[in-house]
Amino acid sequence: MSFFLTAGKRQIDLSTPLCMGIINATPDSFSDGSELAKTSKRKFVIDIDKAVQRVDSFIEQGACIVDIGGESTRPGASAVPEDEELNRVIPLIEAISQRFDVCISVDTSSATVMSEAIKAGAEIINDIRSLSDPGALTVAANSEAAVCLMHMQGQPRTMQENYQYDDVVNEVYDFLESRVAACITAGIQRERIIVDVGFGFGKSLDHNYRLLNNLGHFKNLKLPLLVGISRKSMIGGIVGRPTHERLAGSVAATVLALEKGADIVRTHDVAATVDAIRVHSAYRQA
Q1: Rounded to whole angstroms, how far apart are CA atoms 68 and 90?
Q2: SS3 label, residue 126
Q3: Helix (H) or strand (E) holding 22
Q4: Structural domain that includes position 225
Q5: How far is residue 151's CA from residue 173's CA, in Å, rounded to a whole number?
Q6: Which of 88, 192, 232, 246 is an active site residue?
Q7: How many structural domains comprise the chain?
Q8: pLDDT tens profile 229-263
Q9: Among candidates 202, 262, 271, which has minimal Cα distance to 232?
Q10: Pick from 23, 63, 69, 158: CA 20 to 30 A from residue 104's CA?
Q11: Gap between the Cα atoms of 105 and 132, Å rounded
């Protein structure tokens, strides 16, 4: 099953899986946000030139989408005021859209940030809260942007402290199905919808691997499937390595996800992930 995703004015061919590169405009991302900061002791300021250089390298390495986020969603992360999130992501989205012909995704749950990001050039809304915050569904419906609906139990600050499932696969499926229905009712066409099971968001190690093993079940939603596994604790918990030493484990999990039907892979490590996608695609086509 292959898809064409409508994102703004783009028709994105997903007959072969695509890579989404992560740009964290945050000081406290679990992996790499501080790498793009200007030198400042007073507050975090994104270095636009550094970020643009990274986007340039991502595109050269084969990324078709870049995902810009201004609020860390790692376990225990603090909330970011809306004006601060705007200051982090809008100038960066503007700079990228002016320089590159690449699809830009904004990683946010704020309706205001979504609206301003779309004006600045974003074509995908990637929302860990599945457009459930006030105004988010309306902003998305009134735009031409694609939307990525993710499952999360709880909130980032506490999601790894208290989670409970009777059947994680079916409960995540039912949640995503309900949010897809809400989007369609609001006027968002199916051609604009992506789903994400939310690895690491309110889930144990066992929950994450059950979802990975059963990822093919989510193809029954008949929508593109985004997977975000890169460097996460579900990799670290198995390989016993710190964040920046999880490349091999992340690529292994990516290939398993591709085999189960992933259409978009969100990653910090674009070159290695694109290589994995190309090898897997050649294997499937042989």
Answers
A1: 9
A2: strand
A3: strand 18-24
A4: 4-285
A5: 9
A6: 232
A7: 1
A8: 999 999 999 999 999 999 999 999 999 999 999 99
A9: 202
A10: 158
A11: 18
